[in-house]
Design brief:
Helix content: 25-40%
Structural class: alpha+beta
Distance between the termini: 31 Å
CATH architecture of the largest domain: 2-Layer Sandwich
Length: about 500
Amino acid sequence: MDNHALQALIDALTSLYPPDRLLSKAGELAPYESDALTAYRVRPAVVVIPETQDEVIQTVKLCHAHKVPFVARGSGTSLSGGSLPVKDGIVIALNRLNHILKLDPRERIAVVEAGTINLDITKAAAPYDLYYAPDPSSQQICTIGGNVAFNSGGAHCLKYGMTSNHILGLKVVLPDGQVVRLGGESTEAVGPDLVGLFVGSEGLFGIVLEITVRLLPRPEKYHTLLAAYSTLEAAGEAVSRVVASGLLPGALEIMDRLAIQAAEAAVHPNYPKGAQAILIVELEGEPEEVSEETQRLEQVIRESGAYEVRVAQDASDRQRIWKGRKSAFSAVGRLSPDYIVQDGVVPRSRLSEALAEIKRLGEQYGLRVANVFHAGDGNLHPLILYDGREAGALERAEKLAGEILDLCIRFGGSITGEHGVAVEKRDYLPRMYSETDLDVMWRLRCAIDPEQIANPGKMFPPGTGGNGVVSPVAHSTNLHPLDQAGIISRE
């Protein structure tokens, strides 16, 4: 990093931001040194806190002019190091860009800024009996911009899909400061799916400013069932039974004994005593449809060997059941001073086998593993508990986490379901994709960000770009590659 360029950028930023929104002191920077993956920490040179979209655009233009890397950040809930700062780079904190710019109940859409809290969209849509479907466990604090960056899911992604299934349009500032619009307000897309390309790009293609989201009618009826099992494997088998029955629940979630203990200590959901695992199944939809599916579900659960079955009797009962599940990640902190939240996917047909293997690996490494996961689509979230004060404990936990990722690949799954690759999993990308796949990804990244200043060091393993892979920065015209294709709308 050229120190002169960095200082020139900081000098330019002082004319754009007042002192209380341009942070450079050690105490001011400390909260931004990591995201929810606290094992990794980097202190940025400065943090800027824009209050308007234009301030974001001008900041990116300055970073491009001075070739200084930048990282966009919302609430910092990323569990893979996605918003980890870059040394001698800047952090652009987007929390104050939190306005709901438009809500059209007739068209069932909302246009929101990147710093809008996920749950706030549903709160705004509630008077119209609408809601925003993707519901990550951190939905009370995570921002929609971060959801877009990592294609977040949530407990109800089995039936309704991921963030990418609910985004219609984006307003984006590219790494060179140019502003483009991808998609729009129509549910019928025309041309290449550039919205789909951007969602899940982990900040490597620029910063999203506005998001047009699809809203759904609130289900008329819920049927929330909780089943307790004597073994984790039995709960995993129950998932296969539910799916094989032809039912498509809104949510299908599992928590194991350790996760249950943590939730009980934190929020007291009063789950069944002695359960080694619980399965939460939620049906939703029109009353007649839910009533019919309820009968089939209860038969499947009876045949699955559950020793106790509970059904939520009212909205508060349903909320209590879900509060335990939604609080599980943070609650595990009551059981261990440190933990790593892993994220991988296995085929549903191998779910029980994968859980047994994770249990064996935990015993082999002498580490406790709490399992909380979206069972319906095989998205595992094992929480590896360790004490960072013990010499070598973190390294042992990371090695176990790597073994779990290898297991997911070996079983025909993925190294991430919704947390992204970022820093934590970048070394595993070549194990999942071929050299050709990686080459295409890298060339695309370089075509959109030739200077590689947008969230550098994420997703791709260190050294990517060598071995004959050339950044395609030379073009026959002065147009951006997306302009040459004629497939973007420029501001």
